Fold these 3 entries.
Entry 1:
Amino acid sequence: MLKAVPIDDLKPGMYINQVLKQTGSLRMRSKGLVKHQTVINTLKSRGIQTVQVDFEKSLNHEPSTDSAPLSTPEANTQAPAKVEKDQQVAQNSLTRNAMKEANGLYFDAVNIQNGFLSALNRGAVNDLKLVKDLAQSLIDSIFDNKDALSCLTLIKNNNAYLLEHSINCSILMGMFTQFLGYDRETIDQASLGALLMDVGMSSLPMDVHNNVEDLSAADWEVMKTHVDIGVELVEQCGEISDLVLSIIAQHHERIDGSGYPKALKEIEISEFARIAGIIDTYDAMVSNRPHKESISPTQALKRLTEDERLDQTLVSQFVTCMGVHPVGSIVRLKSGKLAIVSQQNPLSTMSPIVMTFYSVPSQQYDDITRLDLSANDDEIVSGVRPDDFNVNLSTFFQDVLVNQAPD
């Protein structure tokens, strides 16, 4: 039985046959079963208003009395495929245009954030409109093609750590809260909180946050003040949600009480602040900082699972969201090739799609080849740091994922 179902009435377990009404131009390449709320959220964000549901193929859902019956003779002429998988393919294909758009957005984001922090410290900011708009633009891009922005979070400029860290955390927060199934408004607020959580750092003395050695006890006390400073700065900008403020105030708290500034424990820390703590820690570990070299994304994810100060239930979900080898990371293959992960495989986290570019045995760059590891005998041996092989990831990103990605 085929029925027209408004997007607000769509539920996991329903079988979508086709899109009937939308405000955008999303083209679904196959029909199939909706397995998670995340898929529905994505459809909503892309302007889908009404879909055709086949209730004979749906799982334990009866049609609503408000749903209109439809007749489509060609409805069963295509082989069924999972909507969830097709949506991921549509969202995550690293086309040249997607990479260029994401790259341009990221560049603009750094400039906007830089201008905002400068104005904030001069007392010249009266509202948060610019950064709110920035957070929403980042989320729009995540819904369109999250893999493109995921790549960009791993392209590091050692001279712009504070700026890039806040943007990366906002992107990662958007990706993770979308993965967890939160509604768009909550995702926007959580991402804004992540974007703003370290604004107080820009007010600290340069020799504190650029220290190349372990901080002294006195300097550490100064460092910890950035949390309260950040809350005060943001509160001066007008109305701000409790969700955003909780992230700024609590993202350095830890569930065992070892965090700061209030040594909160367990449920005393908001869920979004616990998420922010995980994201903040992860992005710091994969970045070169004045006092510490980066580690590979795979190593960073492993260390998160070993840190009992973090909410391990959320850590496990974050690892699932990112994949064992996150998009944009460099991996070493059994064949001796180096490759950049360009797309996750939702059916096999250990077999993503990669682009090979370097031969370790010959220490030479090779022709760039796209390789689906789920359909190939090669496999990932380990994640690696670009610095270990003198790879300039920023330059290589342009060469591989912008200039040589498919149209």
Note: The radius of gyration is 22 Å.
Entry 2:
Amino acid sequence: MATLPTYTFNPGPAAVYPEVRQYLADAFEEGWLSAPHRSERFTALVRHCLDQARLKLNIPQDYTILFTSSATECWEILTQSLTPRRSFHLYNGSFGQKWFDYARALRPGCTGLRFDINDVPDPATLPFTPEETDLVCLTQNETSTATQLRDNFILNTFNRLGPALLAVDATSSLGGLALKFIKADVWYGSVQKCLGLPAGLGLLVLSPRAVARAREVGDNAHYNSLNSMVKQMLNYQTTHTPNVLGIYLLSRVLQAREPIKVVAPHLAGRAQKLYDYFEQVQPLGLRPLIDNPEARSTTVIGLQGPPALIEEVKRRARDEAGLQLGSGYGDHKATSLRIANFPAVPDTAFEALVQFFEKIRNEEVTK
């Protein structure tokens, strides 16, 4: 059997909190693996989990939190239940593109705009007409390109919406950034990134305006229609047999975590140190994938280099230092690697990462 890496920087599925091992044992001992999901015990668990999510992630009390199987399931839900005509999609990477493609498959009138990974678009010039658009869709943190849209961009987009709703993919930032939930109508993400858990559970967060719009649209033809999901969650229930284990683990992780106002600045500081290092030192010629600091992600750090170098660095990191670096994705698969700056990745892992790069840099200097 191959030796497992000491630390993983893979951006998803990513590092899990070490306490999850005990939580899994507790779930077994406490009978959660076969707990009836219509029982009072389960509804109490859901209530506790949602309370912790509001408390630790600073989700407004009047926003509705729903469980899904993944973040990608939300593409279908939002198109079915909030997009009777068309949505507009702004994207610069694979996941934003996939969201657009999927929405367009269900609603052919959907439109989109691709922008460069080093650009920050002007919200005032985005080519959508609020009166003719149901949903404006942003990928706040694009995992594939290691880019991020800042708070001001989301706020300025929200301010020109008119009757349209704003939906935000926060898959690789939910739980890592202090998101301004009140500045959008829909947020969604998954637990296998900044929430430090195994894959298999998504969170969908809706504003009161989004809930009201779902009622107006009136989609009730699908098991995951928003109207049905919201109605069930009034009683802390789901429309389908839920991932009870995932909800239990999420409740435990959230209860043990520091609030996002503590977590987010720590991640931001760690990211800045790493960006500074690769800008100034550029070991073996590796440098940040994103040149524009205003477009860089805090939670997924991309590095670029020739394909042969990328493969060599990933191999040596694994074999010599026990570090699993994330591969590139999409258009940048061969020429980049990604480093997850997620809360479950400890500071000691980042210290080991810099030590590894210093070691191979010194080898190059002495050749």
Note: The mean pLDDT is 95.
Entry 3:
Amino acid sequence: MRVIAVVLFCHFLAAFTALGMPLFLPRMMVSLGGSESDYLIGLMFIVPTLCTAFSAPWWGRFADKYGKKTSLLRAQFGLGLGFLLSGFADSVPMFALGLMVQGVCGGTMAASNAYLSRFYQGKALASNLNLTQSSARLALVSAPVILGFFSHIDDPLTLYRLLALLPLMAFGLCLFLPRDNAEGSVKISSVARQSVAVNEATTPGFSQVLWLQFFFCFSMVVTFPYFLPYSEQLGVNSDALSGFYYSLPHLVYLLFSFNIKSLSMPAKLQSQIGFSLLCLACVGQFLLVNSVGLLIFRVLFGFGMLLIFNGLHLIVSRQIQQRDAGLSFGRFDAWGKWAGVAAGICASSAIQVTGLNFPFLLAALSCGCALVGLVLFYKEVEQDVDPIKE
């Protein structure tokens, strides 16, 4: 079986585990004798994200020093261990400890991308980064629905114990992946070495890419926490229909992500159009007074996501250097997590003094900042590198 197929399947197992349960945190708190207060639930929600934001760069250095496969195995095993600890918790502090382990020892997205960078470069790497995002989006759409059928059991923490088996299964499968250390690594062609040297000399700093990642993730996440009450405010009375509107952008991404790689538009232009569409979609949702038009703006939101992801992945693939790919992907992931933490805090603070639609205005402003950065500070250098040959 091809390396990419194994990595994607294992990443889906991990993403299904990590992204499926946060929606049901209120039930977990009740089963542990805790409170259903927004404060406690919100705190538990950001614990894994905050821990990943702190630890991701460190694990990136670990991957560069000890091997990308080793780091991928570590991430899968760490996620499984964190879920086991939460599943067997008998108090809120023990449950939080499991979430901390999940965040500190997880990071399967960055670990998977760093491992793939040993086999692919340039557009081939960007295409595979789109595929890892597709597996995450598929998990985000499917996991809450599937797990929702089992969330009313007497002991909902049982779900954590069962879900721990998925990353542990992925750990077992990843054991058979090719090694990437000095002894068993693939060899970089002379053409790839020359291209990397050109990249080092001519492309803009990686910090610019990190800021684009931050603004993009902030724009997406700030609209998520209160989407259900927002849709109810617009007159959407069905939870199922609200869930459909919520997941619609991710469905758009899944439908078109496999074809976006054939788009010949420059990465910078893709990102600019994507941020413009996302900004327009967020402004539209901010101004809505009823559900008429919500479908159009959610689809527009999805196409914005699609173009931004593809554009950013192309930009990142030209910035990545083999010697520090783990650290680069770790930092890229960490900035996305920090954006998520900031977005959650801003959203919860904003609705206290404004309204449920205000997070969409914050998202639009964040898109505007990204557009300014792209126009004024990012200078694109077209550079294509062939996949690394075994």
Note: The chain has 17 helices and no strands.
